Amino acid sequence: MRRVDRPPAAHPVVTVRGKGSGRANMAGVICFRDGERPHLFYRLHIYRGRKGEPKSFPSTDYRDLIVATQQHLDAPLVWR
After folding, report:
1. Could you report the per-residue pLDDT of 36-53, keeping only the tens digit for each?
2. Which stretches does the entry tag as region Disordered (predicted)?
3. Of residues 20, 15, 19, 17, the one with CA closest to residue 5
4. Against a cut of 0.90, is the pTM above it?
């Protein structure tokens, strides 16, 4: 595996050997509270290139990430 040079603010690209039809997507939330260390919550979606398989996150996965974040922190959230 090797890193490919890219312009600033571009999506990172990692070249690997093999078929190359799959991809991994990640959605994440970083939460900050005064006097505490930051919390990272994330969901992964793996696409393997199979017929009929969704390539990206369904909206329910985003919703579940938000609900899990709020339940874990047990506090109101401010989204920016």
Report:
1. 899 999 998 888 878 888
2. 1-20
3. 15
4. no
Q: How confident is the model at residue 59 (pLDDT cuts 50, 70, 90)?
A: confident
Do 71 and 29 touch, CB atoms closer than 8 A? Answer: no
Which residue carries 């994330």 as its tokens? Answer: 42
Give how many domains the chain has, as a whole number.
1
Print the domain residue range for 57: 2-73
How far is Cα 80 from Cα 66, in angstroms, rounded to an integer?
A: 13
- H-type alpha helices, 9-80: 59-73
Asked if the structure places residue 7 within a domain, the reply is yes
The answer as to whether 61 is a domain residue is yes
